[in-house]
Design a protein that fits this description.
heterodimer, A: mainly alpha, 2 domains, 79% helix, elongated, B: Rossmann fold, 4-stranded antiparallel beta sheet, binds adenosine-5'-diphosphate, binds magnesium ion
């Protein structure tokens, strides 16, 4: 057990060292969520559409104004969880989840590189458990992902994101959700790509996975705005559950819906466990076949 | 103790028989070499012996452990330095070594001591804390070998240890390998397609072509199996009697004469050469030039397979091309 843990940490720490010494890698995986956040989040003001401009408000009698405002606020709360939420903050939290897609993808790629450069063979001739190789990659994906996600949050804050966190526990729940999301996504990508022999295929398949995973999640718009079929897909997408937990604990302050949060967190936990076990199982088969 | 023992080892990829019923043994403390051209099946053999792939048929034991039934045991006692460089460019030499130490469960304090010792042995200690990307090709290869030594393996597998390196660097690596055997007592199984490498470094070699072992012996016995040295004499004139006279000398196997040249195939040429020259002088023939060629493994390979070992330039270019392709892909 201790031996296994030290194998995993050796493999993970190699990845982590390579990552923090290579600013390019950090930059490349952060740039896309940042673009989405600043362009889409700022330019496309979805929540702003539900607010009544001042000049229109002035034309109405006060009782109607109040009625209108109540209806609009009700719509906003239903879709976005709170009536005073701004779309930029909403998207920024979405991107804190989406960046884990990119960091997980690059962890999956590192297996393809290890194979290409012969490093995988070096790992396979060492007297270590085959599972340690995959677990090492998953753990490093989690560490990278959580760190970069928090980095996106800091940049978001600088750009005007409004966080409302009611306490330290909520912040820790957010980190836990990010870690579970990292485990889910990296294991998912490893499960799909482990059998691919060339890194070209690896890149193609990873790219093919990213956009659908992002668009079928609640990263860019609320699930409640989606058509029925898309809602079903969103419900089995781990990204949705991760991001929903984050929105509850990061954006809604003390008024968050703890029941909904726990529901999403449980599904995420199940997803992360199943995906990790599946990743280990499939890669054990693939690595033995080599 | 027998370090490696292979019985009719065979590996088939689809239609292609990459390794064809290969049998051999390697004794403890030996440097045993697989010599053969590109595609002969050398790496495939190493991959089977190091438990990376399973043989299609046949069996092998490494340090007494069966490669199919006890792969975990085999992995404990072997080290592998693969054909391609696998040390991590972005880590320092020290970090690369410590990573391997962790993979082989060497406790940290002990690992630090061993890293120091091995880096000294390979004369890399000055560069220990430099990133590997600043290393020369020869230094990277030394580090690669060093990494595979961290757990003090009983048997070290070296796949083309000097592939793509220049002549001096290759000679230096040979020296390091000899030092390892002398000071650490490791047994070495290596592959190469360089004749001079097999000749200089290996105690015994197996010549392999198209997956088949053609001969196994010491380099000197393989060379003497060719049947003698070639002595080439440029003379003032060639006439009948000198051919007859030369043939009667002890050790002479064959004499071929043309215009002003006599080519004599002879066992232990250096001992017979003076006698040959005095015969010629007695016959009134003056000798303008003498050249003696010891048979090389090239001739051995030629006589065993009917083909020449491919020249090494092709291989170097191939490696350069691959390196460029990888760099491009990474950028
Ligand atoms: N995984 C594989 N799949 C199919 N063919 C292979 C594979 N590995 C090696 N070969 C083929 O087996 C033959 C022997 O290869 P290899 O052992 O690498 O030769 P060497 O190391 O002597 O140059 C070559 O023809 C090579 O193309
Ligand atoms: Mg080879």
């Amino acid at each position: 057990m201790i031996a296994r843990a030290s194998e995993v940490s050796a493999i993970a720490s190699r990845e982590i060292k390579k990552w923090y010494r290579s600013p390019i890698l950090l930059f490349m995986t952060t740039i896309q969520p940042l673009l989405w956040m600043s362009l889409y989040g700022k330019a496309f003001n979805l929540t702003g559409m539900f607010r009544i401009p001042e000049d229109i408000l002035k034309q109405l009698p006060p009782e109607s104004t109040a009625r209108f405002a109540a209806i609009m606020n009700e719509i906003l709360s239903r879709f976005f969880g709170a009536s005073d939420i701004d779309f930029f903050s909403y998207i920024a939290v979405g991107m804190m989840g989406v960046i884990l897609l990119f960091t997980s993808m690059s962890s999956g790629m590192s297996i393809a590189w290890d194979r290409r450069l012969g490093v995988l063979n070096k790992l396979l001739v060492a007297p270590i458990s085959r599972s340690s190789i995959i677990l090492g990659k998953v753990i490093s994906a989690i560490i990278r992902g959580v760190t970069q996600s928090l980095l996106v949050m800091l940049i978001g804050l600088a750009l005007g994101m409004r966080l409302r966190v009611s306490g330290l526990v909520e912040l820790l729940i957010a980190v836990l959700a990010l870690a579970l999301l990292g485990a889910s996504l990296s294991s998912l990508i490893i499960s799909v790509t482990i059998r691919l022999k060339s890194w070209e295929h690896h890149i193609a398949v990873s790219n093919l996975l990213t956009l659908p995973l992002m668009f079928t999640s609640s990263a860019l718009y609320p699930v409640t705005l989606m058509p029925e079929w898309l809602r079903t897909v969103a419900a089995i997408n781990p990204l949705t559950h991760g991001i929903e937990v984050l929105r509850e604990v990061l954006l809604l302050g003390a008024s968050f819906n703890s029941q909904a949060m726990l529901w999403h967190l449980s599904i995420l936990t199940i997803f992360a466990s199943v995906a990790t076990l599946l990743g280990i199982y499939l890669s054990n088969i693939a690595l033995r076949k080599m | 103790m027998t370090a490696v023992e292979a019985h009719n080892l065979r590996k088939v990829f689809g239609e292609l028989v990459a390794v064809d019923n290969v049998s051999f043994t390697v004794e403890e403390g030996e440097i045993f070499g697989f010599l053969g051209p590109n595609g002969a099946g050398k790496t495939t053999t190493i991959n089977m012996l190091t438990t990376l792939i399973k043989p299609t048929a046949g069996s092998a034991r490494v340090w007494g452990y069966d490669i199919v039934d006890e792969p975990e045991k085999v992995r404990e006692v072997i080290g592998l330095s693969p054909q391609e460089l696998t040390v991590d460019d972005e880590l320092t030499g020290y970090e690369n070594m410590m990573l391997h130490a962790a993979l082989y469960h060497v406790p940290r304090d002990e690992a630090r001591r061993r890293v120091k010792e091995i880096l000294e042995l390979l004369e890399l200690e000055r560069f220990a804390n430099k990133k590997v990307e600043s290393y020369s090709g020869g230094m990277k290869k030394r580090l690669e070998i060093g990494c595979s030594l961290i757990h003090y393996p009983k048997v070290l597998f070296l796949d083309e240890p000097t592939l793509g390196l220049d002549v001096q660097t290759r000679a230096a690596i040979w020296n390091y390998i000899r030092t390892l055997v002398r000071e650490k007592g490791v047994t070495i199984f290596m592959t190469t397609h360089y004749m001079d490498e097999a000749d200089n470094l290996c105690d015994r070699i197996a010549i392999i072509d198209y997956g088949r072992v053609k001969a196994i012996d010491t380099p000197s016995r393989l060379k003497s199996s060719i049947g003698g040295d070639l002595v080439e004499l440029e003379v003032s004139e060639v006439n009948g009697p000198i051919g007859e006279k030369l043939r009667t000398l002890p050790g002479v196997v064959d004499v071929v004469l043309d215009n002003e040249r006599a080519v004599v195939k002879v066992v232990r040429g250096e001992e017979v050469l003076p006698a040959m020259i005095s015969v010629l002088i007695r016959e009134g023939v003056s000798v303008r030039r003498v050249e003696m060629k010891k048979p090389s493994l090239e001739e051995v390979f030629l006589s065993l397979t009917g083909r020449k070992l491919r020249d090494e330039n092709g291989v170097k270019e191939e490696i350069a091309r691959r390196t460029i392709a990888i760099r491009r892909a990474r950028a």
